[in-house]
Amino acid sequence: MQIVVDSERLSSELATLAGFTHVEPSPDGTAVTRVVFTDDDLKARAWLKGLAEAEGFSVREDAVGNTFIRWEGTAPELAAVATGSHIDAIPHAGMYDGTVGVLGGLEAMRALKRSGVKLRRSLELVLLTSEEPTRFGIGCLGSRLISGTLDAARADGLKDLQSKDDETLAEVRAAAGFIGPLAGVKLSSDYYYGWIELHIEQGPLLEREGLPLGIVTSIAAPAGYRFTITGFGGHAGALLMPARKDALCAAAEIVLSLERHALATGAIDTVATVGTCEVYPGAVNSVPSKVVLQVDLRDTDPVRREGVIAAVRKDCDALQVRRGVTITEEIVNADEPTTSSAKIVALLKSICEENGTVYQTMVSRAYHDTSFMAHVAPVAMIFIPCRGGVSHRPDEYASLDAIALGTRVLATAMSRLASE
Ligand code: GLV
Ligand code: MN
Ligand code: MN
Q1: 417: confidence class by pLDDT, cuts 50, 70, 90
Q2: Exposure of 50 in the CB half-sphere (CA atoms within 13 A)
Q3: What distance in angstroms lies between residue 365's CA and the mean position of ligand 3's atoms?
Q4: Using CB atoms within 10 A as the burial measure, which of 12, 34, 59, 141 is most buried?
Q5: Structural domains of the chain, ranges and CATH numbers in brackets
């Protein structure tokens, strides 16, 4: 069987998908903002379903918009072999994060179909809803619901952080045409025979080593928190400094506390970020009365991660007394690390060795839907290098050769698993 990836078509589809965005062109590269359930996201989904249907693949959508594109095998009663990723993009992102896994997965299935091979197991490409936390504050929304680790009622009550009217996921998904109970999104623990996600590395290691491919053996454990700091606002001229309980000044101390304690572990795998800061009332001549910080904390070692947040909480206790503010904390998510399937990792290694592809096994420090698909399948990931290790920026770039190689290895691995 010869698997021939149509690189030109894949490249043009990646460019088309990057066009579903409302961001103006950036001098740094192709800027993409595609927030879940916006018009751009819905148009991109419709376009992608059209590509799948043109190929004769069937399409199913669940209540949160996870989209399952299936090529039926000769034994459709057997668990399918699946791949997939996401097409949503954070504000002012690049054009490869997630999309390479979705369009590469589609091309892997098309390449296998073109080869004439008849596979026993069905193949599925899954477009997972809202891997990015931009709109609802929690990442991997679709795959969390598939895994059953996110309660359906809690999910439907998640607030749309971009809406002024406190809309919920229940309202937003219904407006986007996705109805029905979220509890029905969960899949059984043996739903798929195997799951492999193709993704850009989003870090510098493969490029630095001059390697074309990485095989992910584990994914670091992410956690998210929301800190609300309530102080005492007032007129920026008239409220005298000794009387102030400035919520933003207190928030600044929390940001620095997080940085200090993350650095203090001495571990390269501990990373902490405060990526959003909402200031109320948000006027230049008004003392901030309330601040909401979204905190992203990750580690390969979840115990070490818990140590960092515990130290930050202690600082917050002291801060409340010293600055007279109130600090409340919400744990958005605190996930476990993920271990890839030894069998799928061995399969990917042997495919690389047969093809003479030099690879490296590696840890993913970024999170991925694969962490949650691990609840319904044995999993692994294929990484391809990206220029300078840059991601979540318009200058994110992966070469077509790298994308085609990843797609070929993915197709080969899916065909081997689907023949079992
Ligand atoms: C995924 O986008 C992540 O933040 O790791
Ligand atoms: Mn991302
Ligand atoms: Mn991604």
Answers
A1: very high
A2: 8
A3: 11
A4: 141
A5: 7-220+337-418 (3.40.630.10), 222-334 (3.30.70.360)
